[in-house]
Design a protein that fits this description.
The chain has 525 residues and is of the alpha/beta class. The chain is 26% helix and 24% strand. It contains 14 helices and 28 strands. Strand 2 (37-38) and strand 3 (44-46) form a beta hairpin. Helix 1 (23-32) packs antiparallel against helix 3 and helix 9 runs antiparallel to helix 10. It is globular, with a radius of gyration of 23 Å. It starts with 15 loop residues before the first strand and ends in a 6-residue tail after the last helix.
């Protein structure tokens, strides 16, 4: 097995380096070190402390001449000087000295032509197991010849000192593209590691002609591939885990000229209100080898998935092959169908609508959804938000680059695009509205994938400027027209126009956008 050179990052004299431990040994070490407990199903369960979600205000990109002109600098990609980064790296490296260190070598990208080798260096055995679950696990031969393209160093116990380190808080997530390393300090939330790797791939893949996508993907029995765009909590994991289709992956993919491939080797699913009836695949994946975060558990090892007292953003990470119909390796053909998932907190968007190419570009760039409680720190109730390309926090390059690539692929391959609202109907969230029933959403998605929706009659929504089917197998017709679900029609009209105005205002910040794309969006008046 190849040697691990920790000294290159300044990590000197660790008491022990555990390299590519098996899941059983990582679980044993985590329990021995008091990092967590086992549930009755055998899953390792941990509490992540102060940070129970991503912390966007603590994320930085190191600004160096080599990449300066390629990064979309701003609130999301906050610049950090190379000197400041080196100081934080030194702090983390010093902290890890005279401690046990866990190292895992894995791949990002199921297509060998485009994959990158990722080395993960962890303070915690439990976090190392998480990355063992979430990255693609090499074969024995691949381990022997492994040479990292990028490194992730994560030390939750190392707290930054804002006044000395020049950062926002005790946590810092620092991406250095020139040194090819990500340093994470102060936060135990495992999603920071996962999304840091995704950010790296979002920077690297476009140069290969590959569109990186924040989406899930699956394959039908006839080989048809579908992708599902959407932010956390919109249903990507749930809706792509279809018993009648093979799952490629639940969150991160690349779209090349060869087709779609999973960037990851695992899934990171939300657990809040999880039930065996509604989400049997996720339920059954919570077993030995899985890492559960922030779900309350009693003295008998029994979970309370309905308890959001720690956070609404309870999570479980597990290998993708824990899903019985997972496609291994995670690759598929050119997508026949693209579905944009949104969770409309206002309760006014149609539950399903068909998008023209121009409308697809509009809604891709817009990336509207509700920011669900707990997905990010400080969010305690649903809020309307716009996230460019359904993944703004993870896009180092300008959004126009990703949008342009998607438009080219939709046009080249004639892919059908639908907008599916998994959010509220009959009223706003918390004010009379109810979340769309999952069986209805599944029926709409199935009809979009198998072509049944193409046979329906469509009507134009005068406010949102999309084509809405008047019928769908398995769905009551009155559910399809959102205005019909409101008792107070005038209140619906007012709320719909309010949301449409938000769309228009948000889209106005995108300069130089083609007039046809602008015209395909909602109408504020």
């Amino acid at each position: 097995m190849n040697e691990v050179n920790l000294a290159k990052w300044g990590i000197i004299n660790p008491t022990k380096v555990y390299h590519n431990l098996a899941v059983a040994r990582l679980t044993e070490k985590a329990l021995e070190r008091g990092e967590g407990v086992l549930s009755e199903t055998g899953a390792l369960t941990v509490m992540t402390g102060k940070y129970t979600g991503r912390s966007p205000e603590d994320r930085y990109v190191v600004d160096t001449p080599a990449i300066h002109d390629e990064i979309a600098w701003g609130k999301i990609n906050v610049p950090m000087t190379a000197e400041k980064f080196d100081k934080i790296l030194t702090r983390v490296a010093t902290y890890l000295q005279n401690r046990e260190v866990f190292v895992f070598d894995g791949f990002a990208g199921a297509d060998p032509k485009y994959r990158r080798s990722i080395r993960v260096i962890n303070e915690l055995a439990s976090q190392n197991m998480f990355m063992h679950d979430l990255l693609i696990r090499p074969t024995a031969e691949e381990f022997d010849s492994f040479s990292e393209d990028f490194t992730v160093i994560c030390a939750p116990g190392c707290k930054c000192i804002p006044e000395l380190d020049g950062v926002h808080s005790e946590a810092a997530i620092c991406v250095n593209f020139e040194k090819k390393v990500v340093v994470i300090a102060g936060s135990q939330y495992a999603g920071e590691m996962k999304k840091s790797v995704f950010s790296v791939m979002n920077f690297l893949l476009p140069a290969d002609g590959v569109l990186p996508m924040h989406c899930s993907a699956n394959i039908g029995k006839d080989g048809d591939t579908a992708v599902f765009f959407g932010l956390s909590g919109t249903g990507k994991t749930t809706l792509s885990a279809d018993p009648n289709r093979m799952l490629i992956g639940d969150d991160e993919h690349g779209w090349s000229d060869n087709g779609v491939f999973n960037i990851e080797g695992g899934c990171y699913a939300k657990c809040i209100n999880l039930s065996k009836e509604n989400e049997p695949f996720i339920w059954n994946a919570i077993r030995f080898g899985a890492l559960v975060e922030n779900v309350t558990i009693d003295e008998n090892g029994v979970y309370d998935f309905n308890d959001g007292s720690v956070t609404e953003n309870t999570r479980v990470g597990y290998p993708v092959d824990y899903i019985p119909n997972a496609a291994i390796p995670g690759v598929g053909g050119i997508p026949k169908t693209v579905i944009f998932l949104t969770a409309d907190a206002f309760g006014v968007l149609p539950p399903v609508s068909k998008l023209s190419k121009e409308a697809a570009m509009y809604h891709f760039v817009t990336g509207y959804t509700a920011k669900l409680a707990g997905t990010e720190r400080g969010v305690t109730e649903p809020q309307a938000t716009f996230s460019t390309c359904f993944g703004a926090p993870f896009l180092p390059r300008p959004a126009s680059k990703y949008a342009e690539m998607l438009g080219e692929k939709i046009e080249k391959y004639g892919t059908n695009v639908y907008l599916v609202n998994t959010g509220w109907a009959g009223g706003p969230a918390g004010k009379g509205g109810n979340r769309m029933k999952l069986p209805y959403t599944r029926a709409m998605v199935t009809a979009a994938l198998n072509g049944d929706l193409e046979k329906a009659e469509f009507v134009s929504d005068p406010i949102f400027n999309v084509q809405v089917p008047t019928s769908c197998p398995g769905v009551p017709s009155e559910v399809l027209i959102p205005r019909d679900m409101w008792q107070d029609k005038a209140a619906y009209d007012e709320q719909a126009k309010k949301l449409a105005a938000m769309f228009v205002k948000n889209f106005s910040k995108y300069e130089g956008m083609d007039a046809k794309i602008v015209a395909a969006g909602p109408k504020a008046e």
